[in-house]
Design goal:
Number of strands of chain A: 2
Bound molecules: iron/sulfur cluster
Order of helices and strands of chain A: HHHEEHH
Helix content of chain A: 40-55%
Oligomer: homodimer
Strand content of chain A: 5-15%
Structural class of chain A: mainly alpha
DNA sequence: TTCGAATCAGACTAATTCAGTCTTATTAGA
DNA sequence: TCTAATAAGACTGAATTAGTCTGATTCGAA
C-alpha cells in the first residue's frame, strides 16, 4: 500500500513544529498534542524516539520539553522517519544479508534486484529532502 | 512502513514471467503459481486484475491462460501495481478532493503539501520504470 | 456430448501490523 | 514537597493484509 505510518507523520509534524517555534524555549509534548490533535502519549513516544536518534533533545521537569538538536537545514526527513519506523523498505528482503528467513520466495524471486534499484531511488527522494524544505 | 503488498509483488513477478515466455502461447495461473511458489488462488486473482486493467488478456478453457496485451516496453510498472492496489499513496488524504473525511488531522495538518511533493517524486519513480527494465 | 482444464468471482478466515491506551517511574523547578 | 514534565514498556482494539474456500463459467478434446 506504500503508506507512511501515522508515527512517521506525527514525527514530521512535531519536527516542523519545533523548527517553526522561533528558537526560544522548549516545546512540550502536551503543546504539540493539542495543536495537532495527536494523542498525547503517542506524540510523547514519537518525541522520545527523536531524542534517541539525536534529532532532538529533551529537558525533564517543569518548563521542560523538547527542542531540535540541529538546524533544520541539517536534518534530512529520512532521519526523522527512520527514528520512528524501523523497517522503511518496500520489501521484507530489502536489507543487508537478506535471506530466505525474510521471505519464503527469496530463492525463486526474480524481482529482487529491479526492486532494489527502485528502493534506492525512493531512498534518495527522502534523503534529499531536509526539514527546512517542508517548513 | 512504506512496504509494497504481496499482491503487488506477485503482479510484478507474473508480468515478468509472461514477458520472458517468448511470445508463444499462454501462461496458466497454475504454471506461475508453481514456478514462484505463490498460492494458486492468489496469483489467479492477481492475473484477473491484470486483465481488468488491460495489461494482459486471458483465454478460458483447456490450453487457456494469460498473456501480455502489450509489449513490455509499453507497460509501466505503476500500471501493474495499480492493477492490484487501489490506494497507492503515502497518506490517506493524498488524492483529488482529499478532505477531513480521509483524516481527522486534515484541517490542522501542516505537512500535506510537502508530502504531496514527495508523493509526486515517488510516483515518477514507478511511472518511469517499464516492464522491459525489470526483465 | 461428456469430461477436464482452465478462467472468473466473491465471500470468508486467519495472521499480522498499526494505532492508541494504560501504568508506573523519574526528573527538575517552584 | 508538590507539580508538571519526560521516560519506558506492556497491553488492547482496530484495521489491513494474506490466504482459503466455494462455486460458476467457458472451451477444447476425447
Ligand atoms: S518476493 Fe522477492 S522481492 Fe519480495 S520480499 Fe520476497 S524475495 Fe524480496
Ligand atoms: S496527517 Fe496530514 S498528510 Fe497525513 S493523512 Fe492526515 S491530513 Fe493527510
Amino acid at each position: 500500500m506504500l503508506k507512511l505510518s501515522k508515527k512517521a507523520e506525527y514525527a514530521l509534524m512535531a519536527a516542523k513544529y519545533m523548527a517553526l517555534k522561533n528558537s526560544s524555549g522548549y516545546s512540550s509534548a502536551k503543546e504539540i498534542s493539542e495543536n495537532y490533535q495527536i494523542p498525547y502519549q503517542l506524540v510523547a513516544k514519537v518525541l522520545q524516539n527523536l531524542v534517541k536518534s539525536d534529532i532532538a533533545f529533551s529537558a525533564k521537569g517543569m518548563n521542560g520539553g523538547f527542542a531540535l538538536a540541529k538546524k533544520p537545514e541539517l536534518i534530512s526527513i529520512i532521519d526523522i522517519i527512520k527514528a520512528v519506523e524501523s523497517k522503511f523498505k518496500i520489501t521484507d528482503c530489502m536489507h543487508e544479508n537478506g535471506s530466505e528467513q525474510d521471505c519464503s520466495h527469496f530463492n525463486c524471486c526474480k524481482i529482487k534486484d529491479p526492486l532494489a534499484v527502485i528502493q534506492k531511488k525512493i531512498d534518495n527522494v527522502f534523503t534529499d529532502t531536509y526539514l527546512v524544505q517542508i517548513l
